[in-house]
Amino acid sequence: MSGPIGVFDSGMGGLTVLRALRERLPGEDLVYFGDTARVPYGTKGERTVRRFALEDASFLLSLGVKMVVVACNTASAFALEHLRAELPVPVLGVIEPGVAAAVTRTRGGPVGVIATAGTIASRRYQRLLAARLGGERVLARACPLLVPLVEEGMIDHPVTRQVLAEYLAPLREAGVDTLILGCTHYPLLRERIAAFMGPGTVLVDSADTLADTARAELQRLGLARPAGGRPGELAFYLSDVPWRFAEVAERFLGHPIGEVRTVNVNELAAPAAAARRKDAP
Amino acid sequence: MSGPIGVFDSGMGGLTVLRALRERLPGEDLVYFGDTARVPYGTKGERTVRRFALEDASFLLSLGVKMVVVACNTASAFALEHLRAELPVPVLGVIEPGVAAAVTRTRGGPVGVIATAGTIASRRYQRLLAARLGGERVLARACPLLVPLVEEGMIDHPVTRQVLAEYLAPLREAGVDTLILGCTHYPLLRERIAAFMGPGTVLVDSADTLADTARAELQRLGLARPAGGRPGELAFYLSDVPWRFAEVAERFLGHPIGEVRTVNVNELAAPAAAARRKDAP
């Protein structure tokens, strides 16, 4: 199958997922769409996030993708079922792989999840974890300041350490043995979070598990590109080119991002209406 | 003239401007639109902000407003000229009134401005101030973390004090005698900023000056409602109802917000196209 895998996120955090996919699936073409004009999703309401997610995925479909990966936790929390019902291709989110990895790794203690306000309010992590472990073993915590701190590049800053200490103290006190990093921005803070939580806590970043799931799904469905072909290509689309964009992108991707095309979010907004307009006299 | 005054902002920060307008113009009807589905604007690029601003203003026009107030500094920085060229009603922004107030109040020392990354990058404050005072008296500083800190309600938090100290130290060291709060979120931090800068620095919040300008403009154009009539009414529209919305709104407005209508941002997105669709067979 020659189509690319489409990956979307509310902004640039999903580049951490793209990076994992590229490492695991070096022969696959990848197309990334970051909805930087409407970022963040984590503070917004369920209906809005669901609508945006459907528009983002529809844009990727218009590029001929064979699979859609929802790299954004908030969009996975609110829109995954909806996307699966609406789209003609397989859809993977980041929450289920993160939960599966946490359930495998816990040693019987409490399991924690940190994420945006929206993801925590959706209760999707909590419900999936409780179904496997029992609700009394699940602790969730919204960490709304971590996204802006990471985007500002304040990874090793004393302010970030102070904010982390405040968010994570109740999880450390509860003796959490496994902590899910439930937002694609958080892996950039992995070392700081590990230092605060101590060696007794395993950190789960769903990007790697998601990439493994994607590989298995492509094989199972006969959609994988044969091994030994040319290296996969990367294409980037964003709905806005934000200030200091290249610097932020490189932080997430691990290397310079290369050429980026921009998409007018208005054209995303109503693909059906746009098609109708084309047909109109 | 019976039409309301329309006020728009990227989110809820503009409610500080609405509050000032209401105090100065108690007899005028006011309509507020907060583009909470696409907030923030301050991190986004010029073309995107200009397009969003035009859509927001067009929505207000569709409600019959007699004047448009751009309560968002970033939108004022990037889109004011454009809106004035495109709209059939008077358009006021927050930057010119802020600059005018600062120029009046400075005692000959350096004048500082703090704002979002976008507003500072636009150089609009800096250019307007330099034209009046000379460039060597102007100091500008982007403060990207202040918006999320205010939205989290961390007004008196040690983290906020630490972040403010870092942003403001160079301005204090330079002996700034007047400091423009160039973002509608910052008046909520006024006390903390004043405490750090000390009594030698006058803080300028453009909301009050803007409200005075709006009153003068309405009088001058014969658009003011006659004094002594019924009290003005307030109507609120948002493009998303975010998490903990009522709490954040009350923080900015100073009292509970009352009924809010939501607007689908897709319908905003292309008013012209939407009108065309209605006409299509």
Please tell me about this protein's structure.
The structure is a homodimer of 281-residue chains. Chain A is α/β, with parallel strands linked by helices. Chain A folds into two domains: 5-93 and 208-279, 3-Layer(aba) Sandwich (Rossmann fold); 96-206, Rossmann fold (3-Layer(aba) Sandwich), CATH 3.40.50. Helices cover 48% and strands 15% of the residues of chain A. In chain A, helix 11 (245-253) links the parallel strand 9 and strand 10. In chain A, helix 1 packs across helix 10. The longest helix of chain A has 17 residues, at 46-62. Chain A is globular. The A-B interface holds A 36-39, 43-45, 47-48, 51-52, 117-118, 121, 144-145, 147-149, 151-152, 154, 158-159, 162-163, 166, 239-244, 264-266, 269-270, 273, 276-277, 280-281 and B 36-39, 43-45, 47-48, 51-52, 117-118, 121, 144-145, 147-149, 151-152, 154, 158-159, 162-163, 166, 239-244, 264-266, 269-270, 273, 276-277, 280-281.
Kindly list the characteristics that best describe this protein.
alpha/beta; four-stranded parallel sheet; 281 residues; disordered C terminus; homodimer; six-stranded parallel sheet; globular; 13 helices; 2 domains; Rossmann fold
